[in-house]
Amino acid sequence: MPRSHDPDRRAVLRGQLVRFAIVGVGSTVLATALFWLFAHLLDHHQVASALSLVLSTIANTAVNRRFSFGVTGREGHWQVQLKALVLLAMTLGVTALALAVLEWMAPQADTVAAVVAFTVGNLIATVVRFVLLRRWLSTSPAASQTSVPPTENGRGHEVHGGGGGI
After folding, report:
1. Is the predicted pLDDT of residue 19 greater than 90, yes or no?
2. Would the pLDDT of 42 be above 90?
């Protein structure tokens, strides 16, 4: 049977997608709340976007590494965080474009409209983020060290090493 049709692999992917979505909802709420706060405090949507995305990306990557993809231990943590920050540049580009289009189409748009534009841009970038994080975490040195088959909760592997934490 081809790998792509393996029921265990589909179950792992389905579990990862569900957990990634749960983390994504939390991260979207966090990023949106931070964007709203910074937009009001700084009165500058692009700066608010950048600050909220940097902070939420760091938290999102740490939680996804552990919860969505089952990678524990510290090995590979900083490499994935750095890669996620590179992804952040793509996310910033997409959200900056969405906010620029809003500004061009409706120069007097309020913060609510900016939050909608920010969220749409963020959702588009999320699809790319899942694919790349999944690839990076399944090929990271930490993931290849100690890997176990999918568990009942659908996580692809658990890695233990280098102290606790994410």
Report:
1. yes
2. yes
